[in-house]
Design brief:
The chain is an all-alpha fold.
């Protein structure tokens, strides 16, 4: 319900920036890229895999 609120969107942008910095460090050091996933609570269902949800709701810079 609050996923579109300014507060949630600002936190998502900050998280996306954090993931960028973490990726910039981990990739050259043999790690994997970081991604931010913002999954609405009503999207989680028994028949959904985490991978499917993560792919569908990966947060992209807008």
């Amino acid at each position: 319900m609050d996923i579109e609120s300014a507060d949630v969107q600002e936190k998502a942008q900050a998280s996306l920036e954090y993931c960028k910095y973490a990726t910039d460090f981990t990739i050259p050091n043999g790690g994997k890229p970081w991604k931010y996933v913002l999954i609405p609570h009503n999207a989680v269902m028994v028949n959904m895999s985490f991978l499917a949800l993560a792919m569908k709701y990966e947060y992209q810079d807008s």
